[in-house]
Amino acid sequence: MNSLFKILLLGIIAIILTFSITLAYSENQKWDCPECGRTGNTGNFCGGCGHPAPLAGIDSGDDAQVKVMTHAEYIAAAMDDEVVIESYVQDHQSWWDNKMTVYLQSEDGAYFAYEMACSEEDAAKLVPGTKIRVKGYKGEWAGEVEIMDGTFEFVEADPWIAEAADVTSLLASEELANHMNEFVAVKGATIAAQEDGAPFTYKNPEEKTDDLYFAVDVNGNIYHFCVEFYLRGQDSEVYKAVENLQVGDVVDLEGFLYWYNGANLQATSLTVK
Predict the structure, then answer these.
(1) Topology of the domain comprising 71-154
(2) How does pLDDT run across 233-247, given as a tens digit for each residue?
């Protein structure tokens, strides 16, 4: 009788433990395996070695219970705070020296990950729509809010790519800053003259291997935009389109709403109307 009671008791304990683990990870909570180090596991067992998931509240390592921020929490974080976000790659600048600057966006907002640590092998996998988790520090430069000293890992998810949000009517408003780093559109803008009267300026006029600067007039206000060379180089359609501009051309633009002492859209496409 005692043996039967012990068997029943052990069975009940096993059921309770299994139920606890199921509760802890029933909503796709991600965890790191304490046995093999595999990151981003979901469910009750490690996808790499089969090790069971740790119970909720038990730390299996420094990053085992990482809290992924919402975009609102990221915005609310103080400068220099450590931040952890998950979002989708929309585009990126050129890879170099095991670093990559990446434009990220989700349905609730966008991020600019500046010179994120990235191997050349992983850089090839960062195609638009790919979801990643980025850990770094919140920083600011000339008004641009960005993630600095970032590292990342891939997150399994269906691809997601943002449509360009038309911000033409917001250009003169404070609300525009709420769309910082998003993929946006500006429509019906008129090309304004540079100081020398030209429609655009080369950052490197001798070799023409750097950014292009141009300005647009929208409702009587002048805005300064650019083609970021490491995002769209001299052989890209938008770079060539800007080189062919004339003062007074009316254009539609798309690009990423970067900030440099004010809105400084980094154009990825430009069409003369």
Answers:
(1) OB fold (Dihydrolipoamide Acetyltransferase, E2P) (2.40.50)
(2) 999 999 999 999 999
